[in-house]
């Protein structure tokens, strides 16, 4: 099975206007991403505020993105929950809608054991028959995929990649040592570590900031793969990421997508928008970044 993508995938935001999904803004955003060299679009992930979306809304968003993308890049649907049956149902719907792959997060709250992870992911992967990206984000789930478990899971022909948001390079290097990387892809889930991640053999990143700066982030990856140093190029992006760290994702990035015209600056409860002073500072930093002054 060929690699899903190389370089930068975007963890797509969900635009709202008056607390309803703004499909016109969504289509505009997708076009912006495609016109700026994004390599994959992840729909209905954490950045999309997926816990606040109904199943019907998730399906409609996925339909809109699949239609807009029209095969130009892979569309990956976030379908994982902490219930295997619900995750499987969502994954089968995503396949029917036309997703190219699915992304499955580790179960949260009720969690499970490592044996449970193997059973959970394998059950879904075998039944759906689409490429699967596993999402390891212990900061949000208090659950991790151990290296031995990842090696076992990678034997499944449908489990082809990991989105690694551990920020643990010992973990990353152990995966590199023990997985067949001609068949398996390693994607960072952390925008701030990509200089090292790319240099140490990562195949790309599933990015939040790429919602606003997709072309710059992909250019960074391509330069790194040519063997060129990207530390200096990353410095202004790093400063923008520092500005985005003012609150939890996706609260800050949606301020920037609103600047670009992709929906109002709205998030759904329990998330709340930035205080006006913080929003002003973030927007000023973004303006400086775009002007080459950050």
From TrEMBL:
Leading EC class: lyase
Pathway(s) of this molecule: Amino-acid biosynthesis; L-lysine biosynthesis via DAP pathway; (S)-tetrahydrodipicolinate from L-aspartate: step 3/4
Keyword Amino-acid biosynthesis: yes
Reaction(s) catalysed (UniProt annotation): L-aspartate 4-semialdehyde + pyruvate = (2S,4S)-4-hydroxy-2,3,4,5-tetrahydrodipicolinate + H2O + H(+)
Subcellular location: Cytoplasm
Keyword tags: Amino-acid biosynthesis, Cytoplasm, Diaminopimelate biosynthesis, Lyase, Lysine biosynthesis, Schiff base
Catalytic center residues: 135, 163
Residue numbers binding pyruvate: 47, 206
UniProt-listed Enzyme Commission number(s): 4.3.3.7
One cellular component (GO) term of this entry: cytosol
Single GO MF descriptor: 4-hydroxy-tetrahydrodipicolinate synthase activity
Classification via InterPro entries: Aldolase_TIM, DapA, DapA-like, Schiff_base-form_aldolases_AS
Alphabetical GO biological process terms: diaminopimelate biosynthetic process; lysine biosynthetic process via diaminopimelate
CDD domains membership: DHDPS
Major site of localization recorded for this protein: cytoplasm
SMART domains, A to Z: DHDPS
Domain of life: Bacteria
Annotated site (Part of a proton relay during catalysis): 46, 109
UniProt cross-references to NCBIfam families, sorted A to Z: dapA
PANTHER family: 4-HYDROXY-2-OXOGLUTARATE ALDOLASE, MITOCHONDRIAL (PTHR12128:SF66), DIHYDRODIPICOLINATE SYNTHASE (PTHR12128)
Complex and partners: Homodimer.
Role played: Catalyzes the condensation of (S)-aspartate-beta-semialdehyde [(S)-ASA] and pyruvate to 4-hydroxy-tetrahydrodipicolinate (HTPA).
HAMAP family with a match to the protein in the record: DapA
Entry similarity comment: Belongs to the DapA family.
Name of the protein: 4-hydroxy-tetrahydrodipicolinate synthase
Name of the gene encoding the protein in the UniProt record: dapA
